[in-house]
């Protein structure tokens, strides 16, 4: 399997999926949100509680611009949408994982090519630039791993209030040691990696396993994540109460509760 990506950030027609059907509630009987009787709050890890500073997307776009190519804000947002969709256990990443199973360098060069396409770069130019962009990221992108202070504040508040807290990630391997390093381990009753149960968001099965670990029903459980395609669609399908963590307003059309910072979440529990 491919290593966990150092930055999470195709066919360009796939980018159109960010409109229309993707922003229609796949589980309409759940409704958009109700905080009544919430007993457990589950979180995504990467991109939600755990961040890379600066982000890989920022450095990638900076590299492309420094190569003399024009990248608009619209281009940047489109590429961010593609990246979120790609890492939502898409068919594309599944195929790439098999194709480049033992070739990490090839995987990231291929990823860079598709990211360039998502930025609006012509196919031939993307093919030429991708190996250089991937090599640059591999050599020079050394981000700081960061947990926002308001995340610690929120988790302390929720634990003191008696909520059951858990983590659900699309990682391949358990990540308890990393939680210890990040001083996050003491807050959570459990953490669950997709590889442990052979199910990855947005597949509802991983959420069903998480509910068993939490000991709560879906309507009693809130799920907070930053990836609309993985976190929101998946938790909606499983019947949980979804909350999108979207500090950069990447998904303004999202059909769920949205918070811009962790300070906003307690208001949803009143």
User: How many individual helices?
Assistant: 10
From the coordinates shown, what is the CATH architecture of the largest domain? 3-Layer(aba) Sandwich
> What is the CATH homology-level superfamily of the largest domain?
HAD superfamily/HAD-like
CATH class of the largest domain: Alpha Beta
Q: Give me the secondary-structure category.
A: alpha/beta
Extended strand count? 8
Q: Give the averaged pLDDT, no decimals.
A: 89
Low-pLDDT runs of 5+ residues are 1-35
Question: What is the CA-atom radius of gyration, in angstroms?
Answer: 18 Å
Distance between the amino and carboxyl termini: 43 Å
- What portion of the residues fall into strands of 2 or more residues? 5-15%
Q: Strands of the largest sheet, in order across it?
A: 5-4-1-6-7-8
How helix-rich are the residues, as a percent range?
A: 40-55%
The coarse silhouette is: globular
What name does the CATH topology of the largest domain carry? Answer: Rossmann fold
Number of structurally distinct domains: 2
